[in-house]
Amino acid sequence: MTRVVINQSNYIPWKGYFDLIHDADIFIFYDDAQYTKNDWRNRNKLKCNESTLWLTIPVGIDLNRRICDVSINNYKWQSKHLKTIIQLYSKAPYFNYLKDFLEEVYIENKWHNLSVLNQFIIKKIARDFLGIKACFLNSADLQCEGKGQDKVLNLLKSVSATTYLSGPAAKNYLLPSSFEQENIELIWKDYSGYPEYHQFYPPFEHAVSIIDLIMNTGKEAPHYIWGWRSRLT
């Protein structure tokens, strides 16, 4: 039995993204897909006293490119993002827990490619801070043809998937019958029920970067993503 998740890489994603990775044996970065503007590829939100604040990587306005082809030419954003994170979380109980990681991302490296940056951050957080054991692959390396659902199915078959785990947004374009024909179980991820944790600025907001959760809960972060479900059962 092989459980697979396929998703585009996002910039410092929210906890639900890592919840999906945790459910998977194989996580495929679908970064040879079309880049989309005003999406999660190059930006995410942090909690602040005015509800939320966007951190956005400037990557230009060209939409005629794949995510893996999006270059980063301006590096000033790195120091700006780090400064913002420090301003918001320097007094968080687990700021030092992420300090070395933040320095590695925002000071020690200059990023030239959005996909490379996103994948580095996601894999680093998943493995080093959340203890996730999933195998990470790139869709481009699998050399599968097709678009949309056909591409997804071809990627799944290339890794002998028996189960496909997907976020609920994909209900708009995935047909369960097509997965049944390929003997692949389709499971929709449920993001409801996440427990709240201490945030500096009320009201509580779930839809912010994983950084917020780790800064406030440290090694207990996995409990607030998936561990709480085991206590319910």
Tell me about this structure.
The protein has 233 residues and is of the alpha/beta class. Helices cover 39% and strands 14% of the residues. It contains nine helices and seven strands, in the order βαβββαααβααβαβαα. The chain is globular. The mean pLDDT is 96.
Summary?
The chain has about 230 residues and is of the alpha/beta class. The chain is about 40% helix and about 15% strand.
Secondary structure layout:
Layout: E1 3-7, H1 15-23, E2 26-29, E3 43-48, E4 51-56, H2 76-89, H3 95-106, H4 114-129, E5 135-138, H5 139-142, H6 148-158, E6 163-166, H7 176-181, E7 185-188, H8 210-217, H9 221-232
Parallel strand pairs: 1-2, 1-6, 2-5, 6-7
Antiparallel strand pairs: 3-4
Please count the beta strands (DSSP E, at least 2 residues each): 7
Q: On the 0-100 scale, what is the average pLDDT? A: 96
Distance between the termini: 23 Å
Given the helix and strand composition, which structural class is it? Answer: alpha/beta
